[in-house]
Amino acid sequence: MGSEPLRITVLGSATPFPRPGNACSGYLVEGGGVRLWVDAGTGTLAELQRYVSLGEVDAVWISHLHADHSADLLTAFYALLYAGLERPLPVPLLGPPGTADRLAAFLTNGPDRSPIEKAFAVEELRDGHLARVGGLTLRSRAVDHGGLPAFALRVEDGDGRSLVYSGDCEPCPALVELALDCDLFVCEADGAVPGHHSAAQAGRSAADARAGRLVVTHVGPGATPAEAVALAAAVYPGDVAHAGPGTRFEARVGAGGGSTRRSRTPGRTTTSPASSR
Description:
The protein has 277 residues and is an alpha/beta fold. It has 8 helices and 17 strands. The radius of gyration is 17 Å and the shape is globular.
């Protein structure tokens, strides 16, 4: 295998609004020479800059357009155009149908449409969408989130490692198919409500997909992170962890592996248990 790992860093996992020390949904995926910002929920742009500058992000991928997964695209727009970042524009943005017009409708304050396309090169997702960014392959599947266009993501590198992110969705065959035999499965566990997984359902989806490791994220107020891990572990036989803010997970073929928590001090990394923060 190559020397560069495929890894995901949790920028935030709070739902449905940010908490002190925990932004809404957002992740930094690194591998294949690529830095990918996955979901841009409230507060995640600030957290992203603990690890990379916005100018170092190669592409953005958005699962759906609820604010707790996409709101920081608005401030990223201003940063890209007006902060003097030395990077080529526009930045590739893969998102649900209507992404560009939704952003423009919010930002426009006058007769002229905001120039979203100067900041972002928007490519609309569809079921089965395939994209390549550097050394990474991105596969997207449409999933069930209460009728709203929503997608899950599978990221694969050139060494055969894979990670899957559910976005927000209820259990569905498309998610299990996408996650089949993946090395790392990051699955939301907001609660047993329409459009979402409960923690136990996240465990069941991971088991059905034969995932190598499960990380529960976006845990709703009905359970603590430790309780969510226990509920998922009751039905999933592999290693289960919680997506605490700042925690980093590597996709490792055939191994559960440990997680690391990024220190708030740049350049420092500390090892954390594989349970919850």
